[in-house]
Amino acid sequence: MKFGGTSVDGLDRIRGAAARVKAEVDNGYDTIVVVSAMAGRTNELAAAAQSVTPLMDAREYDAVVANGENVTAGMMALAIQELGVPARSWQGWQVPVHTNSTHGAAKITAIGTDAINGKFAEGMKAAVVAGFQGVSAEQRVSTLGRGGSDTTAVAFAAAFGAERCDIFTDVDGVYTADPRLVRDARKLERISYEEMLELASLGAKVLQTRSVELAMRNKVRLCVRSSFTDAPGTILCDEEEIMEANTVSGVAHSRDEAKVTILSVADRPGVAAAVFGPLAEAGVNVDMIVQNISESGRTDITFSCPVEDVGRAGELLNGIKTSGEVNFRSLRLDTDVCKISVVGIGMRSQSGVAARMFEALAKYGINIQVIATSEIKISVLVARRFMELGVQALHDAFDPKGV
Ligand code: ADP
Ligand code: ASP
Ligand code: MG
């Protein structure tokens, strides 16, 4: 059972979550309870670290931001004990949750199950685990990237062979679009791992992308549900379990994108590698890439990346502007774009989805700047001021069915 930030925001909510844990214990289950920091706490801690120095040692950043979860883990264990259920809390290093050393975005490499299983054998009924954190091989505290408690929960479900992994949050399931943006978004009864993976990586933050990847790989039965109501949530499952696939199951958006255009670069083998190699090394998260045919032997390359990476990308590209291999004329940076995407496994067997998408946007005069597709998604980059309108227009056009 994983409880997100709003679900543990204050004592009343922690008590509410504890009551849910007790109910499962009363059903006969041993439970692992993964908790996030209280809503907003991780942002405050990140700002505190930032206030010391913006160019900080990522290991110390982790040492600071991991603490929000430590507080809620202890409080949750106390609240569960108060209900008469034997419980104790565990920080990442105590479990231990081993990770690699990519501080700020660490990957879980292994979870030790002996200590917790030992306590279950002694009669403990609820192991409360601080989400989002682990310990590196150098014995340093690491964190898993924003939204990482979802990944902690799925990784524990896989490691302990859990029967279910319930993600309790402030919405009662996965919707056909962010319900904060699209008022008539509908809740999905089921969604395939593949679709959820696309939605998450395209901006639907209801689940961290890596948690979906892990669930898919380990066949974890994942359910996204409300911590405030008893409404049935959304179940993640294999594609084969979905009887009638929507053409489009969901619309996702990502607000803070940037577009980089390299103008007049030589059109010959090795140039793209010379551009994108250094960008990758610098950790610039390049997403969509477009290059057109050229008649003059020179061409333009456009790519998108998160706004937070664009300064680094610009600096780096200007640094190699006149190097032999690359040698481009000029660089254009646009930090005023967003990405909207439609996702659906039904797209595999249907043609004309792209045309319908482009028509829906054209109807509102929304200009498409960059397009990218995969088998089950189409994404476009548009001016940021069109984000809400674009998402709503696509939701209206495809009218995905929910419950
Ligand atoms: P938690 O703190 O519980 O992890 P998050 O804020 O990380 O919660 O994720 C839940 C939020 O995800 C919702 O409040 C909602 O605004 C947002 N969201 C974005 N896209 C979707 C979607 N397709 N379905 C449901 N929620 C979504
Ligand atoms: N507290 C962390 C964050 O805000 C992890 C999480 O909530 O999943 O990103
Ligand atoms: Mg979250």
Report on the architecture of this protein.
- With 403 residues, this protein is of the alpha/beta class.
- The chain is built from twelve helices and 18 strands.
- A hairpin with a 2-residue loop joins strand 17 and strand 18.
- The longest helix is centred in the first third of the chain and has 16 residues.
- The protein is globular.
- The two termini are 24 Å apart.
- The model has no long low-confidence stretch (mean pLDDT 96).
- The site of adenosine-5'-diphosphate has 19 residues, from loops.
Question: What attributes characterize this protein structure?
Answer:
alpha/beta; single chain; 18 strands; binds adenosine-5'-diphosphate; binds aspartic acid; binds magnesium ion; 8-stranded mixed sheet; 6-stranded antiparallel sheet; 403 residues
